Amino acid sequence: ETRTKPQPQPQPQPTMSASSSTRGSSEENTPVGVHHFKKVHFDRPTWCEFCSRFIWGLGKQGYACTKCSFAAHSKCKDSVPLESCRTGVAATAQLDNNKRRTLMRKMNSKQSTRFLTTQPNRVYVHVIGGRDLAIKDKTGYSDPYCIVNLVNQKRKTNTLMQTLFPRWNQLLTFGVPDSLEGQSLFLICMDFDQVGSDDFMGEFNVDLSKLTLENPFMEGWYKLEPRAEKDDEVSGDIHLQIEFVLGDGDPKIIKPLAPSSEPVISGILQCQTKEGWKPRYCEVDSHSFRYFSKAEKDGSPPRQQIELVEIQNIRTKPKDDIEHGIMELCTTINSETVFAFSHESPTELWEWLLTLSGLLDDNEMSLRSLNDTARAEVLAAMHLTPYKGGVVKSSYEEEWQYFPDGRLICVMGTDAAIKLRFRWNGSTLTQESTDSEDNSLILGIGDYNGHRLNWYVPDDSDPWISLKWDRSLREYSDGVMNWKWTRHFLANKNGDGEWILEGGVPEPVVMFLQIIYQARQRLALPTSV
Fold first, then answer.
1. Of the candidate ranges 123-132, 243-252, 271-280, the one whose mean pLDDT is the lowest
2. Backbone dihedral region of 293: left (phi > 0), alpha (psi from -120 to 50 degrees) or beta?
3. Three-class SS of residue 422?
4. Nearest CA among 44, 211, 45 for reference residue 125
5. Which residue from 363, 350, 386 is spatially nearest to 471, judged by alpha carbons?
6. What is the average pLDDT value for the chain, to the nearest integer?
7. What does the pLDDT average to over 197-202?
8. How far apart are CA 319 and CA 348, in angstroms?
9. Quick one: pLDDT at residue 101?
10. Which of the given ranges, 212-216, 233-237, 478-482, has the highest pLDDT on average?
């Protein structure tokens, strides 16, 4: 019997339909290193590894290689080089669904790691937070998370429960080539559901072509968009910072925000709504202002959360013959949005004004805080006008006289040749004169903005001492020095020292007296007779 010599098998053709992938070309006959595509249903958010776009659809949405789980759109599959299959992976077509999902997750993780370790440079994406996101749950809130795709790598943020103003504050790392020309970042926001599929909340692309070593940083609020030809209900924006770094170094510009902290100030404010002024529980911490739907904090998420970085301006308006009776927070949510708050006690409202302005100052955003004129008027109304004068005595055997016009004179304790005199205007304590012409007796100037108390010595633009006022604890602190008010006493929590108040004297002035004492010690001036 004559045998014919076997002919070599033809190489797979680039075009492969769903029927040919199951009938004309079996996986067993596909050479190693060559994709074997099969139309599949993706049961979790999946991106096309060819065009980097999200794979949408119902049923079998796209194609996946049964060897390496390379995912692709139907329209992109024919353009994928068949010889680009990732080797060393067993076929997954005959595995049950649970094992197949596990294997695909492992493959995606390996692929992301491979890109990160083999690409020469880094792009850092700081997913800061979102605002005004769409409501997807019956509770009136959502459980949002983001998935970011860049250069065939996917990263996911944490899921934050029951909020429309999430604050992820997560730094995601991507390996990238030397040039980002033609590259884009694709972000999708999803709502997590315990039962059923997660809900779509919006998506957007960011063109990274302009990100270079000369211009390595970009930041902005990016508007969430619906899917093409879909009637999606989406709203809101996502705040991103993006930095391109040569090599595998750390980011130089991006500075992740400080973690959430305990409220600096909290209580009930009157909030202006469509139905008029309504009482709302509000609180401020080191990074945001939040107000709730009710007048008490009952465990529900905030109705609105305004990040400090979103505040463009703090201003005041008169109300009921009170010059600064309304506090307005101006933000850039969608267009300029103004949130207005008031309080039956002007002093209480002014505490909020000064706390928010002080926090903006601390974060180098002083141009957005309350303007200098309004702040000086508020501080004078709080810490000058109401006080009729009094005496302050210390454990250092000193006595100071405070007058209603803001004059402050040492009447006992210091060397008789010095006779220190200061003037207080509600925010600044200045040294007026001494009985000596010696300029070395000039101790400096004090400044108080309602949130922080600073003392500047001559010829130095940076504060010599800077103390933060904690309203809830009623103490001044710099992390080392801690002075606390207890009734009519200002006492040192870390050692000796106490100031006793008799009559009407502004509290910041008493703290300044302690700093003046330390300034005299610094200059080795006499402190007692």
1. 243-252
2. alpha
3. strand
4. 211
5. 350
6. 81
7. 93
8. 14
9. 42
10. 233-237
Angle subtended at Cα 314 by Cα 309 and Cα 318, rounded to the nearest 5 degrees: 160
Rounded-to-integer distance, Cα 351 and Cα 265, Å: 9
Please state, as a whole number, how many other Cβ atoms lie within 10 Å of the Cβ of residue 376: 17
Q: What is the Rg, in whole angstroms, of the alpha carbon atoms belonging to the chain? A: 33
CA distance 420 to 443: 10
Identify the residue whose tokens are 């039956």. 344
What pLDDT, on the 0 to 100 scale, is given for residue 404? 95
Instruction: Report the pLDDT averaged over residues 32-55.
Output: 76
Residue-wise pLDDT tens digits, 334-393: 446 789 999 999 999 999 999 999 988 887 777 888 999 999 999 999 999 999 999 999
The pLDDT of 477-484, averaged and rounded, is 88
The amino acid occupying position 216 is: P
pLDDT of 418: 62
For the cut 50, the answer to whether the pLDDT of residue 411 exceeds it is yes
Closest CA to 76 of 57, 58, 93, 63: 63
Exposure string of 276-286, with b = 16+ CB inside 10 Å and e = fewer, is eeeebbbbbbb
Q: How far apart are CA 496 and CA 479, in angstroms?
A: 17
DSSP 8-class letter at 13: P
SS3 (DSSP) at 346: helix
Identify the bridge partners of residue 402 per DSSP, sorted by sequence position: 390, 408
pLDDT at 332: 60
Report d(CA 5, CA 8) in Å as an integer: 9
Non-local (6+) Cβ contacts of 301 within 8 A are: 141, 162, 163
Contact assessment for residue 143 and residue 137, using Cβ atoms and an 8 Å cutoff:
yes
Q: Between the CA atoms of 426, 429, 435 and 437, what dihedral angle is there, to the nearest 10 degrees?
A: -140
Q: Which among 71, 76, 241 has a CA at the least distance from the CA of 171? A: 241
Among residues 83, 48, 82, the alpha carbon closest in space to that of 62 is found at 48
Answer for the pair 92, 100: CB distance below 8 angstroms, yes or no. yes
**DSSP states of 183-242:** -EEEEEEEE--SSSPPEEEEEEEEE-TT--SSS-EEEEEEE-BPPTT-------EEEEEE
Long-range residue pairs from 230-236, CB within 8 A, at least 24 positions apart, any chain? 230/56, 232/200, 232/202, 233/134, 234/134, 234/200, 234/201, 234/202, 235/132, 235/133, 235/134, 235/202, 236/130, 236/131, 236/132, 236/133, 236/134, 236/164, 236/201, 236/202
**What's the residue count for the chain?**
529
Q: Which of 126, 123, 368 is nearest to 238 (CA)?
A: 126
CB 441 within 8 A of CB 525: yes
What order do you get walking across the sheet with 217-223 strand by strand? 170-176, 121-131, 237-245, 217-223
Dist CA 292 CA 279 (whole Å): 10
Residue 99 has pLDDT above 50, yes or no: no
Angstrom distance (rounded) from CA 17 to CA 25: 10
Which residues lie closer than 8 Å to 504 by C-beta, 6 or more apart?
386, 387, 388, 389, 390, 402
What does the pLDDT read at residue 45? 74
